Amino acid sequence: MRIVYYVSSFIAAISVILAIVARLFLPNKSILGLSALSYLRVTNTMLLFAIAALVFEYIHRKKTA
User: Fold this and answer.
1) Where are the alpha helices (DSSP H) in 1-65?
2) What is the pLDDT of residue 29?
3) Whether the Cβ atoms of residue 32 and residue 45 lie closer than 8 Å to each other
4) Are 28 and 49 in contact (CB under 8 A)?
5) What angle, rounded to 10 degrees, do the helices at 2-25 and 36-64 form?
6) Residue 14: which pLDDT band, with cuts at 50, 70 and 90?
7) Average pLDDT of the segment spanning 9-15
8) pLDDT digits (tens, 9 = 90+) for 18-65
């Protein structure tokens, strides 16, 4: 489960960076056909997924201990 957390956190970090770059430096505010808002929505989803994975892992460890 920790791998899921790391992967989703990494994707969220990359999405935030792409959104910032698209918003600040590109005239049409899109990278690869996606706007900056789309990257921020992906970031939001991945962070919520990471939080859910951490909570699930915490509950699972608490039950086994």
Assistant:
1) 2-25, 36-64
2) 80
3) no
4) no
5) 160
6) very high
7) 90
8) 888 888 888 888 788 888 888 889 999 999 999 998 998 899 888 887
Among 51, 42, 60, 45, smallest CA distance to 5 is for: 51
Of the candidates 3, 9, 13, the one whose C-alpha atom is nearest the C-alpha of residue 48 is 9
Let me know the angle formed at the C-alpha of 19 by 54 and 1, rounded to the nearest 5 degrees.
15
Q: Are 37 and 6 spatial neighbours (Cβ–Cβ below 8 Å)?
A: no
Number of structural domains found in the chain: 1
- Which range marks the domain in which residue 57 is found? 2-64
